[in-house]
Amino acid sequence: MKFAYRFSNLLGAVYRQGNLNFSKDGNSVISPVGNRISVFDLKNNTSETLPISTTKNITCVGVSPDGNVAIVVDEDGAALLISLITRAVLHHFHFHKPVSSLRFSPDGRKFVVTKGNVALMYHAPGKHREFNAFVLDKSYYGPYDETTCIDWTDDSKCFVVGSKDMSTWVFGAERWSNLIYYSLGGHKDVIVGCFFEKDSLDLYTVSQDGTLCVWESDTQLDGLILAKSKDKDRTTLTPGHEDQEVEEGEVIRGKPEVPKDEKRKTVRYKQISKHFFNKDGDFNNLTAAAFHKSSHILVTGFASGIFHLHELPEFNLIHSLSLSDQRISSVAINSSGDWIGFGCSGKGQLLVWEWQSESYVFKQQGHFNNMASLAYSPDGQYIVTGGDDGKVKVWNSNSGLCFVTFTEHTSSVTSVAFTSSGFVIVSASLDGTVRAFDLHRYRNFRTLTSPHPAQFSTLAVDVSGELVSAGAQDSFEIFLWSMQTGRLLEVLGGHESPVSCLCFSPVQSVLASASWDKTIRLWDMMDSWQVKETLHLTSDALSVAYRPDGQQLAVATLNGEISFWNPHTAAQTSSVSGRHDLETGRKDTDKVTAKQLAKGKSFTSLCYSADGESVLAGGLSKFVCIYNIKEQMLVKKFEISSNLSFDAMEEFLDRRKMTEFGSLALVDDGEGEDVHISLPGVRRGDMSSRHFRPEIRVSSLRFSPTGRSWAATTTEGLLIYSLDGSMVFDPYDLDLDVTPVSIRQQLRRQEWAAAIILAFRLNEKALKQEVLETVPHDQISVICASLPDIYVEKLLGFVAACLENSGHLQFYMMWAQNLLMLHGQKLKNRSAAILPTLQALQKSIQRHVDNLSKLCDFNMYNIRYAAALSRQRGLKRTAEDDDRVSEDMSEASSDAADMMML
Q1: Can you tell me the distance from the alpha carbon of 467 to that of 486, in angstroms, rounded to the nearest whole number?
Q2: Which residues contact 240 (CB under 8 A, 6 or more apart)?
Q3: Where is the composition biased (Low complexity) (predicted)?
């Protein structure tokens, strides 16, 4: 079992806060999700989370005009320069203060950052390697309060900055003699957006109270006059600005000294019109705005969830729609002006709207509360999640997008599961119901309830999909239903504490139940639901899991241990102490060290790997551990998050937050002198408080049936970790004569079987694919028959991996068919060991079947329509010919009658 799992994707959250951006071609949306960046490809309907993360939540993202690089800034002002092509971090920088906005110039040579009441212009990183990628060019002072927004002219000569002091400032990017700065008023609230007209200095400004001002300039862009070269003004900063980074750039102040003999005409602005959005009083508090210069379309979003489209400068309303009842946090327009992106941080929504056809291009929403559980479908293609928001969501593991949401539950969903068929989802909730959902018709077709109200905290479905069991956390009972009839079959009693976990055996009709009463009970479903065995533990049982072959049971207990049992003999075979591997962080309000806290921590979720050799464990910590069962040792530990915006992330006390009166974390940020301390047992903070930090935790873990990936539901979202084969060099039976040169020599001699064996001994993906695709298709059956058994399994696994992405569909299908036909009996004898490989092959084939069946159906209906249309035209043409013949015959008969008369 290889443990080279790397972070692959982030599901369950599509937008948190910050500004949205479109890619250069306009086909992708770049969205900040916590401390990560997700890219949603709207053309191919896929998503990808970049393998980079900041130390805190991202608040600002700027993308270069060529779309190659982006700058992301977090809450503290720490910035990363990342490549959108290689997905790598190029440079680290710190602005030392929170950044409100960032914008590249259209020519890509400069970018402006606003922090506090100052605007800083930097040289943009070039195409060559640089020692310092961020070089300060100029600092601009003018506003008295924090700056909010930026926009550039099309030729990158000037930029405009909006501020919270209700003023808008126009600055020159170069030293223009007739435009150093210009201040505009006219608003009575915070400036939300300021935009230049296309190829002009004319301006539009939008404020938070729903006011639009149109400003006209008396000078064109080509009328700006470059000032004479002077020595750069390297004067010191005014008091209060000592921390600004201006030692390498010049300072431009809002009130410069203008020579008295200066007679040049300076740039002037005039307000030509003023418009109001909230004439009827239905909505106010404008929160986001975007302007597309080519089409003159202004998009504005409001706190009530309404957005408007206006055509400027006439202020003609195109249409007004409501997305939801949540505040629109960010608006962006793509380069062509067809698609508009909206981000709502309240519910974690991301929408892309095509305004001309008035339809959604993209609509996604994650769980806006904690995710409690997840489950993989039997083929590994789908993932279902349940959250505290009462929703059950189904995600496509290939595209990373949610394609159906079930909202029938009225309280938190505590557990979800797939049946063995893969088309039925079962979920348990605190609302006292267990519901079954159909993935064919997307409906809730079965609702299972108990005789008396109970809150279900755990769920399990047997291998046949016929029996559904749920454990109650208040009555200590286990309820058993029939999926076919929906009837309650039995109520299993015997536990003396809440039931924490249920698990069915994969090979027998045996149910294992874990409880806080320090016992594991094995219930025989075939023998009147009696207790078959009782396993006595030394501490409260929190989680239980069966090995895929059903021959072993893993139990996580409150003392931080994982014990392994033989379910047939009820004997403990081994145990692992994992308390010291959790390394829990300390919360801001804790008064003890993280080491002392870890003594009371334990694993709350367990799952076996696909081959049963290892176990995956997670709990109230930012770490997920993989243990080797045979060696009883920790193999690898994954840090699921480095986001310091979450609580319980830091191991040591932050002395900067300590005062003589105690920790600053105990002081509420809101108004009043009340100190807000969360109640014991509360993990998410008081939702009615003004400010809270969610605590990092892992609530559920699952391995994919294919063994190629595993998933974890965390405070950050649904994290997917997968094997990256291209980055791992893992040769098998390597020798001196096994080289790429010798492999290609075998290919030239047409020794196909020898070349394949050597390529798999070297185990380099690109070389294996080259050798396999060089083999003639008529030689496949001969080669498959002559391969040794050990290479048959390796070749089958490689074919399953290639079949998922390769375009040579028939070629790889021939390989798979011949391997299964010629070695089927031997593979069947080792089916337990190669089950992940067979499931990966099934998943690839099923995906191609689904795609091709849709295409064939579409083409079939088109052909039928064309054939029916041609028949209809043929009948019409035949009828016209018949009419023409009858007309000719009638004319001929009339002519003959006339001749007879004559």
Answers
A1: 10
A2: none
A3: 891-902
Please, is 528 exposed, middle or buried when counting C-beta atoms within 10 Å of its C-beta (0-12, 13-18, 19+)?
exposed
Q: Tokens representing 783? A: 């080669």
Average pLDDT (529-551) is 89
* 125, 67: one domain: no
Tokens 């804790």 appear where?
Answer: 590
426 is written with which tokens? Answer: 């079962």
747, two tokens: 């290919």
Half-sphere exposure of 740 (CA within 13 A, CB side): 7
> Residue 202 belongs to a domain with what CATH number?
2.130.10.10
Residues 6+ apart with CB under 8 A from 20: 29, 30, 31, 330, 331, 332, 341, 342, 343, 350
Whether the CA torsion 398, 400, 406, 410 is positive or negative: it is positive
- Pairing relationship of beta strands 709-714 and 718-723 according to DSSP bridges: antiparallel
pLDDT confidence of residue 707:
83
How buried is residue 588: exposed, middle or buried, by Cβ count under 10 Å (0-12/13-18/19+)? Answer: middle
Provide the whole-model pTM: 0.78
**Helices H, strands E: what count in the chain?**
10, 59
Statement to judge: residues 59 and 43 lie in one domain: yes
> Is the confidence at residue 893, as pLDDT, over 60?
no
User: What mean pLDDT is predicted for residues 71-80?
Assistant: 93
Q: Reduced to 3 states, what is the DSSP secondary structure of residue 846?
A: helix
Query: Could you give the C-alpha distances from 427 to 416, 473, 502, 636, 703, in angstroms and in order?
Result: 4, 16, 13, 32, 19
28 and 111 inside one domain: no
Shared-domain flag, residues 27 and 144: no
DSSP assignment of 103-124 = EE-TTSSEEEEEETTEEEEEEP
DSSP secondary structure, 218-264, as one string: SS-GGG--BPPP-----PPPPTT-TTS--TTSEEE-SSPPPPTT--S
Verify that 621 and 707 share a domain, yes or no.
Answer: yes
Tell whether 555 is covered by a domain: no
> How big, in percent rounded to 5, are the helix, strand and coil portions of the chain?
20, 40, 45
Of 33, 58, 89, the domain-final residue: 89
Range from 109-118, 559-568, 808-817, 880-889 carrying the lowest mean pLDDT? 880-889
Burial of 743 (0-12, 13-18, 19+ CB in 10 A): buried
Region 755-763: what's the mean pLDDT?
A: 81
Within a domain: 304: yes
785 shares its domain with 752: yes
Q: Are residues 714 and 775 in the same domain?
A: no
List b or e across 415-448, with b for residues whose CB sees 16 or more CB atoms inside 10 angstroms. bbbbbeebbbbbbbbbbbbbbbbebeeeebebeb
> Are residues 703 and 760 located together in one domain of the fold?
no
432-464 tens-digit pLDDT = 999 999 999 999 999 999 998 899 999 999 998
Enclosing domain of residue 699: 578-651+693-724
Q: Tokens for 316?
A: 């003609």
Residue that terminates a domain, selected from 70, 89, 108: 89
What is the rounded CA–CA span in Å between residue 319 and residue 814? 55
CATH number at residue 778: 1.25.40
When divided into structural domains, the chain yields a total of 5
Peptide linkage before 313 cis (omega within 30 of 0):
yes
Q: Is residue 46 part of a domain?
A: yes
What DSSP state is assigned to residue 695?
A: B
